[in-house]
Amino acid sequence: MIDLHLHLDGSLNPKNMLWMAEMSGVKLSFTEENELKKQMMVEPDCKNLGDYLEKFDLPLQVLQTKECLEYAVYELLKELQAQGLCYAEIRFAPQLHQQRNLTQKEVVESAVKGLEKAMKEFPIEAQLILCCMRGEANHAENLETVKIAKEFLEKGVCAVDLAGNESAYPTKMFEDVFLLAKEQNVPIIIHAGEAAGAESVEEALACGAVRIGHGIHSIESPELLERLKAEKIYLELCYSSNLQTQAVKNSCEYPLIEFLKKGILVTINTDNMTVSNTSLKREYRLLKETFQLSEEMLLQLAENSVEAAFLPQKKKLKLEQKVKQEFLKWLSTERI
Ligand SMILES: [Zn+2]
């Protein structure tokens, strides 16, 4: 299985978080594992993406040293491999890890170290996506993120992204940041059509996005859907997270089946394993049960993830075999 949309800070497990707090001398307000886990998870009364994003303050307290960043990436990949994943693209925003004066380059170097160590020890492959952040006082930091992504491209990093509060900071504010990415040939993903409408996805495409984080509000525009299909733009759906942030009110409004019927290329992802309290298998299972997806449909979704991965064609072919095998094995256990 493959997860293409997974945030590092939203996927730390509480046990590792306690260890990192000790390692870096951070005093957390919660030191008991279960209590900490509760604090790291989204509240049942989460009203919007803004509320959801508040959950990142706590994990970010510990992700401020080279050692912790390396450890967090390593441990996350160890966990993903144990869950049965064979490839993942993990994302984070280097500029959010500078509270103790690390440079963005040092942040990324440390994360790459953790990535390489895990890939050496476990049968899993992975790459990093560097997020720029929506905001108004961080233009220089966003440009720096693109430059660092270029420096580490194909050396652990595979793309840049735009994350943060979509409704407060429209995508078009960041045009020049992504113009730089385009000039540098760094692949672009943008979180869009999550807390804003189809116009935000259109703006993301204008910025050069080749994949869209969420993109569920694309369903509002038939013209946009045609374009997504024609241009083979992949949508990274994260079902549980989309319900929690109230990007859709309930499962009846979730456009998965319509996307599939219209031939839109969708992939299934977790977004944040800890904040959303989920795993990739759980997401597939939830969708299977909620939308009565056939095994063929589920396999198609898994294969879409292989196609959407930022990997050379040769590697994708190899991965496709592996994913198919593992996926069929998982499906057979699900039937019991
Ligand atoms: Zn996300």
In short:
The chain has 336 residues and is an alpha/beta fold.
Written overview of the protein:
Residues 3-325 form the Adenosine deaminase domain. This protein is of the alpha/beta class. It has one domain (2-335): TIM Barrel (Alpha-Beta Barrel), CATH 3.20.20.140. It has helices at residues 14-24, 33-40, 49-53, 57-62, 66-82, 104-121, 139-151, 175-183, 198-206, 222-230, 239-244, 256-261, 280-291, 295-308, 313-335, and strands at residues 2-7, 87-92, 125-133, 157-163, 189-192, 211-214, 234-237, 266-268. A 4-stranded parallel β-sheet has the order 1-2-3-4, with helices on both faces. The chain has a 4-stranded parallel β-sheet with strand order 5-6-7-8. Helix 1 (14-24) packs antiparallel against helix 5 (66-82), helix 5 (66-82) packs parallel to helix 6 and helix 7 runs parallel beside helix 8 (175-183). The longest helix is centred in the C-terminal third of the chain and has 23 residues, at 313-335. The chain is globular, with a radius of gyration of 19 Å. The model has no long low-confidence stretch (mean pLDDT 95). Bound molecules: zinc ion. The site of zinc ion has 6 residues, from strand 1.
